[in-house]
Amino acid sequence: xxxxxxxxxxxxxxxxxxxxxxxxxxxxxxxxxxxxxxxxxxxxxxxxxxxxxxxxxxxxxxxxxxxxxxxxxxxxxxxxxxxxxxxxxxxxxxxxxxxxxxxxxxxxxxxxxxxxxxxxxxxxxxxxxxxxxxxxxxxxxxxxxxxxxxxxxxxxxxxxxxxxxxxxxxxxxxxxxxxxxxxxxxxxxxxxxxxxxxxxxxxxxxxxxxxxxxxxxxxxxxxxxxxxxxxxxxxxxxxxxxxxxxxxxxxxxxxxxxxxxxxxxxxxxxxxxxxxxxxxxxxxxxxxxxxxxxxxxxxx
Length: 300
Known about the structure:
The chain is of the alpha/beta class. Helix content is 30%, strand content 25%. The chain folds into 2 domains: 6-76 and 210-243, no CATH class; 89-207 and 258-299, Rossmann fold.
């Protein structure tokens, strides 16, 4: 296990709805490694996982902040994701392009925040869209340039917190699997809202706090008398700090002056045997308990 030094920052209010700590409840503990069936029998450092009862946001309290952010995101992509991540999904790329064209317009200015290895951005460029990317990780940026073929001058190497763009400049902003990594999602949304034009759209994909599989895993931990939960992974890859609900964005919209105009859920395979996989996917589809939540925000 790689040695990482952390500072631990107490959480005094919900980042998405502003509720104070009296509205938090403890869900359990999360190790700084994958946990398996018996996390109580493995060595590791744990942090407490809480839920805001006002909006359903799930987070770590205290928040583990690495002394150097590159300890989390400066690792090579192959060490961060499994092999499937490096296989382009034509249907997924097509969906990204269609949404960018729909929300941004054929001649609109588009910002892709957190391009990763760059499949989605490459698809938008090949479709003739005017897209700029942000990527804070140098290894990921280099992969996007050298392996995927994205022009380097189209990518800004920066965190969203440090990036600089004109106000009211973009027609559409895409947050793909980014917000859950940021220490203040609400601040990042507010920053993106400054860059997008009035009436412009921001699409965000994030982990669903109501994911059925997490609830099943957590029930197993409770039944086996283990004080752990499967939610988020603040101290190991993929370093998720938050899980969100639809209500998180409805309440945050009142703070940041946006309107939630669309949402849907991505179910994803359960990786269980076929007798369980299909029924559970069907149940997740019907109940809104898929793995990912996708929301579209409109600047007011």
